[in-house]
Amino acid sequence: MEEAVCLSNCRAPGLPKAHAMSSLSSRRRRRRRLRRGGDVRLSADWADLPIDALLSVLHKLEPMELMMGGAGRVCRSWRRAVRDEPELWRRIDTRFRKGHRCRIDEDTAREAVRRGSRRCEAFCGEDATDHFLLFLAEHAPTLKSLRLIFSDHISNEGLLEAINKFPMLEELELSLCKNVFGKVYKFIGIACPHLKSFRLSYLYSYSNRIKDAKYNKDEEAMAISTMSALRSLQLFGSELTKKGLTAILDNCTRLEYLDIRCCYNIYLDTALRAKCTRIKTMKLPHDSTADHDLQIGRPIRTRSKVTRREYAFYGNSILEEFQVP
Asked: How many CB atoms lie within 10 A of CB 3?
């Protein structure tokens, strides 16, 4: 009888009896939970997270979320952390991601580097320019990893000017950057004595019947062979021959990983195979390319007498004048 009276008192006019009973049960369950847990709040306030916990959460977000403002719109404390915490900007990746409608432009990338407060240690991006590379060199003097992909607006001149400002660089990738070539790699090895990982990937078709006497297929390989501290080397789709690979193996004695997939000008005879036995992990010219992170496929063989890059000799005069301080 008392229960019926209580129920009739809590039920609003016109409210079904079943609905009133459900509301009453819900309130009773809520009271029981509060009695068990004391005054513990049922939902956490994300705005009041300690800074260490907040940074841990923000580190799990994609770079696009941080740079394009998504995380900063959650609340004031998140916006302040994204703007003022250099720890979030030690590693910057501006590559395009599937599922996102927009790309990160150069101005946004510059702002990300600025937020790093000269503490950025790793940068990976596409469509970079000489101007941006020089900006990065000025604002990230402790950079250890630099990966530039599809960056046709980076030249030998721009790279040489910037590379001296990365003395702590340990990892470098210059994949599909068609205006970086030739002897420039020799000076990279001199300017970056701590370089341990170097990656090059080529996209363009090439000829295995080039008759131009001036064209040296091993020019880049001979330059790379001066990087004596290398532990890991990828030359995907390079035109180097046995001569160039031999120079690399003889001079880069610390190599543990070597990727020469799609390097079809190399003939691995018995002597060359013997030199390769000390390499812990090696990928050969005809090995599968399925795990290549750029997924650019295999270079196409042609019978053309024209080199893969018509600019193969353009700009080399600046290399003769370049000196490492």
From this structure: 9
pTM check: above 0.90:
no
- The phi and psi torsions of 112 (rounded to 5 degrees) equal -60, -40
Largest CA distance in the chain: 108
pLDDT tens digit string along 59-79? 677 666 676 666 666 666 677
Residues with Cβ within 8 Å of residue 106, at least 6 apart in sequence: 127, 128, 129, 132
- What type of residue sits at position 128? A
H-helix segments, 123-237: 130-139, 156-163, 184-191, 219-224
Contacts with 171 (C-beta within 8 Å, 6 or more apart), sequence order = 122, 144, 145, 146, 147, 195, 196, 197, 198
Angstrom CA distances, 51 to 82, 84, 116, stand at: 11, 12, 17
